[in-house]
Each structure stands twice: as structure tokens, then as C-alpha cells.
Design a protein that fits this description.
The structure is a single chain. Helix content is 54%, strand content 10%. With 162 residues, it is mainly alpha-helical. The protein folds into two domains: 96 residues, no CATH class; 48 residues. Strand 2 and strand 3 form a beta hairpin. Helix 1 packs across helix 2. The longest helix has 20 residues.
Length: 162
């Protein structure tokens, strides 16, 4: 049996999680699989595997309910058009991308004090710019480093993660 690569294994577990959440939303096992596979490809094109499995299942459920309403009663003034949902999914995706692109990092007063105590170099240019601030987001927190451009020393300001 050929080995599955990590991406396929991750997608498989993600799909199983979404189907499990569809079960929690009231779909039976086979019905949850059918609904999932009916909408998975288009939803994955829009969102990728970014939303957590619960959010992805809710989006699929909302999409499926909208289609059912449209099929059941086209004259009902309260039904949601599928095209409207597609536009809404694209807007949600753009909001997510916008949030990703606008990360903000801040230095606390104690960090600024540590930088002042650590700083012993004098600038030679008119801008007096001598530090490079490095922020590395991780699953545990943010790694924060300050690098002096004059003497190349590095100060690690990462706070304890425990």
C-alpha cells in the first residue's frame, strides 16, 4: 500500500473532522458524507483548509440548507439565493486574508526599559536608526528580538510561555 504524504493525511483528517461536526449538526453518517462531498471542492477552493472544522461544517450546513430551501419553495420570499451565499463566502475569505495581512506587534514598557539598559552603541548617521525589530509569530506566542545594526548584538525579549 503506498504511503500517503502529509498533505493528504492532513486533508483526510480535516474531512473526517468536518463530517463529525456535520453529524453534530444533525446529519446522519451517510447523509453527512454526501453533503460534505457535494460542497467540499467549491468550499475548499474558496477557503482552503483555513477555517477550523466546526466553522467549515457550519458553512457547508448553511450552504446545503439554502439549496434545500431554494429547491423546496422557490416562491418563498425568505429563501436565500445560492449566488448570494457564494458572494458571501468570497467576502468572508477576503476578510480573513485582510486580517492575516494586518498583524500588529507591540513592545511593552518593560521591554523598552530592557532595550535602554542593553543599548550601549552610538549611531553615526543622521537618522539615528540602529535597531532591527524582529517579530516571529508561532503557535506558542511571539518571538521578539532586537538586533543592533552597529555591533550586531541580539537581545531576545521573548517572554515566558508557560
Amino acid at each position: 500500500m503506498p504511503r500517503m504524504n502529509n498533505r493528504r493525511i492532513m486533508a483526510k483528517h480535516y474531512a473526517q473532522g468536518v463530517i463529525a461536526h456535520l453529524n453534530l449538526l444533525g446529519y446522519h453518517d451517510e447523509q453527512a458524507k454526501l453533503v460534505f462531498f457535494r460542497h467540499y471542492r467549491e468550499m475548499k477552493r474558496i477557503f482552503g483548509l483555513e477555517p477550523n472544522v466546526g466553522e467549515f461544517a457550519k458553512l457547508i450546513d448553511e450552504f446545503e440548507r439554502a439549496i434545500k430551501r431554494e429547491e423546496d419553495n422557490l416562491k418563498n420570499p425568505n429563501y436565500i439565493k445560492v449566488g448570494h451565499l457564494h458572494e458571501r463566502l468570497i467576502k468572508l475569505k477576503s476578510k480573513q486574508e485582510k486580517l492575516k495581512s494586518t498583524m500588529t506587534f507591540e513592545l511593552t514598557e518593560s521591554m523598552l526599559q530592557k532595550i535602554k539598559e542593553w543599548d550601549s552603541c552610538h549611531t553615526t548617521d543622521a537618522t539615528e536608526a540602529k535597531f532591527a525589530y524582529i517579530f516571529i509569530p508561532t503557535g506558542l506566542g511571539v518571538i521578539i528580538k532586537v538586533e543592533c545594526n552597529i555591533c550586531n548584538r541580539v537581545l531576545d525579549l521573548t517572554e515566558a510561555w508557560y
